Amino acid sequence: MKREYSLRRRLVAAMSLTFLLGLGGAMVYYYFEAYAVGQHLEERTLQSQARELLAALTVSNDGDITFSLPGNLAQLYTGANSTSFYSLYDKEQKVVARSPNLSVDLPLIDAPASGKLGNLRFIDAEPDHIATLGVRVAHDHTLVVGRSRPDGDALAFTLIEEGLEGFFAVLVPFVLFSLLIIWLITEWSLRPVARATDQAMAIGPANASARIDTESLPAEIRPLADATNGAVERLAKAYAIEKRLTADAAHELRTPLAVLSLRLQQSRLQGRMDWPALEREVDTLNRLVNQLLDLARKESAGGDADTTGLALINLSRIVREAAAAVLPLAEEMGRAINIHEPSNARVRGQPDDLRDMVRNLIENALFHGRGAISVSVKPVVTPSHGFVIEVADEGAAVSDDELFTRFRKGNPASSGTGLGLAIVRQVARNHNGEASFVPDASTTRIQVYLPTSPRSVESSQHSAAIEFPASWRA
Fold first, then answer.
1. Which of 42, 117, 118, 336 could pair with 134 as two cysteines, CB 3.0-4.6 Å apart?
2. What is 312-472's CATH topology?
3. In Å, what is the CA distance from 285 to each residue of 246, 280, 292, 403?
4. Residue range 68-90, pLDDT digits in tens
């Protein structure tokens, strides 16, 4: 099983590691700074030592010397291995007191008369050099303090010990508090993600319109939410199309299935099968189902109607192929089909869908119109470049836009499915175009506008440029 990981724990670990690295870097920097000061470090250590001794030293008027050193400070000057020393000289430069761990007195060095601490001096002594410092005390006495000169690391650690007194008592609560702040910051930073998760979980069949609110999301996560919303939108659209297809199929198949059932019952009662009638009913069912599936496929392919990635095709050839497909039916019905088109009108689109669209336009004219059928392709130059496919017959003028709605028929008693013009409009819109009846026409005329590049028109004949209806303009 794949191990799960927590984004919050990763962020906390990364931020904590960064914090601890910064803290460690500060300590390393402090160490090297302490190591670099060298002589100043020794001087500062001896100054602290001298101040401690001065605080514990008392010189009376009759010359009595008293050192009131606390226990921990007294141990620095009594142990055989201790490295701190002191010698006290009177005004006659005689030693009147010294630390118990000294076998040889520290040499007398000059000290400022003002009582300030003197400068650092080094003397040779076995086994190490000794750093010394002098200070003038009461009754012209001079206190000389010394310490065996340690190496650089020892000096650095001495300063760190002095400077970090009580530091760890503050460091531990500080680190814990910082980790708590890091945890709370990550929780606050991920709160919009938690809200987006709740919103995503609320999306379902009962709440298909719900989406993730991207306004409050961080910029780094917003593209993911936008992509999710887009995917949900496409799924919702496909679900709506499938749901509508199911409802339409259930509604529209009811009548032909009932008719087919009645014919079968009638055949059973009569003892003979009326095969031509049964075949007509089956053909009607097949045509209805095929057109329903075709319309659903074209609606699903609609998307954002972006044709830029499609191939550049010859619209004139598409029109000729569609007309050739229905020519046998037209000849059987005694109807003529006249084609007027440029030799090379190019648009970007799906060849099969455009061929179906033109075929449905011609079939609509065959089944619901009369007289000769005219199919023309004309270039459009204003307000944008493209082509208009116009299919006209000699029947009465029709301008009811509702006929482009699925299952809507001009004559309810006709044998058609009511899906042909719905397919025409859907294919046109899939190609950023539109389909409509030509208003104020004396005969039935349907125009389909398909936009294209202005360089697409390469005509061998001079077809008049037209303007498409105002309702198509953006």
1. 118
2. Heat Shock Protein 90 (3.30.565)
3. 15, 9, 11, 21
4. 888 777 888 887 677 888 898 98
